[in-house]
Amino acid sequence: MTLRTPAPKSSSFRVPSDVGSVSSARRRVVAVVRDWDLPLVEDTVETLELLAGEVIANAVLHTGQGCQVTVSWDGTCVRFEAEDAEGGLLPQRTPANSDEESGRGLQLVDSLAQRWGSRPTPDGKVVWFEIGSCSRPPLRPCPGVIGSDLPYGGAQRPVSVAEPGCGVLSGSRAHVTST
């Protein structure tokens, strides 16, 4: 029997500026991926739902304008993008104190996605992440492996520090900010 990888796919939809729309948008992302019948384990789909919710919530809360969500499959991993119309600084993961009510969304994205990043657009910015196998060969050698300040499975997890346009090695995670 020959196993085939599903063909590349993409789906986009608009999320309104209402904070109440975040949970339905998160569920819609999962429904899209499930409709595609991708070779993803349930834990990966649950992680996709969690991270999509965090990124969508950030876009809706910080812009008050909603966002455009795009979910795509390239045959190796799922890519999620949320584009908003808020220009300025690109988002960066910052440490959050244990007593703060917010500030952990990008920490989750950083620790659970294979890759993530942000890039400016003519009207604002896109925050994206990839999840799934995402095992693509690098386009050029990436800098060495370093330890992360976030625990992963009770131990320090190695991460590949990627430069813009640099792929990641299988099993590593990186944040990439494009300018």
Summarize this structure as a short list of keywords or feature phrases:
179 residues; alpha+beta; six-stranded mixed beta sheet; two-stranded antiparallel ribbon; 3 helices
Question: What structural category do the secondary elements indicate?
Answer: alpha+beta
**Physical arrangement of strands within the biggest beta sheet:** 1-2-3-5-4-8
Straight-line distance between termini: 45 Å
SSE ordering? EHHEEHEEEEE
Number of strand elements = 8
Tell me the radius of gyration: 16 Å
Tell me the helix content: 25-40%
For the sheet with most strands, the description reads: 6 strands, mixed
How confident overall, as mean pLDDT?
Answer: 74
Count of alpha/pi helices:
3
Describe the model.
The chain has 179 residues and is of the alpha+beta class. It has three helices and eight strands. The protein has helices at 21-35, 42-63, 105-112; strands spanning 9-15, 67-73, 77-84, 115-120, 125-132, 145-152, 155-160, 174-177. A six-stranded mixed sheet has the order 1-2-3-5-4-8, covered by helices on one side. α1 packs antiparallel against α2 (42-63). The radius of gyration is 16 Å and the shape is globular. The termini are far apart. Residues 136-173 have low confidence and may be disordered.
Layout of secondary structure:
Layout (H helix, E strand, L loop, with lengths): L8 E7 L5 H15 L6 H22 L3 E7 L3 E8 L20 H8 L2 E6 L4 E8 L12 E8 L2 E6 L13 E4 L2
Parallel strand pairs: 4-8
Antiparallel strand pairs: 1-2, 2-3, 3-5, 4-5, 6-7
